[in-house]
């Protein structure tokens, strides 16, 4: 499975951590930015990542920003996308394992 990933500067560290885990687990990752903790507009990476899902290049997208609110709003403006905001790492892990149970 190929997953698009994007973030703003506040979400950059989390995006990098998630990307590392995904790559270790054998997922293919298309990183659309940002590429450093320097100031970056979340709308740019949200649009790029969502476009990759809509055009079929990637199956899913993971987007990270400081609060998750702005990047969710930007993603939901892309026709054909529905972005869910997971406000805390604990909730994200719980929800992931409910949908993808461990063997």
Describe this structure in words.
This protein is an alpha/beta fold. The chain has helices spanning 12-24, 42-54, 69-76, 89-99, and strands at 2-7, 28-31, 60-64. It has a 3-stranded parallel sheet with strand order 2-1-3, sandwiched between helices. The two termini are 18 Å apart. Residues 96-103 have low confidence and may be disordered.
Name some characteristics of this structure.
103 residues; alpha/beta; disordered C terminus
**Uncertain spans, ≥5 residues at pLDDT below 50?**
96-103
Using the CA coordinates, give the radius of gyration: 13 Å
Please give the number of β-strands. Answer: 3
Biggest sheet: strand arrangement: 2-1-3
Q: What overall geometry do the principal axes of the alpha carbons give?
A: globular
Q: In percent terms, what proportion of residues is strand?
A: 5-15%
Break the fold down into its secondary structure elements and pairings:
Elements: E1 2-7, H1 12-24, E2 28-31, H2 42-54, E3 60-64, H3 69-76, H4 89-99
Parallel strand pairs: 1-2, 1-3
Helix pairs in contact: 2-3
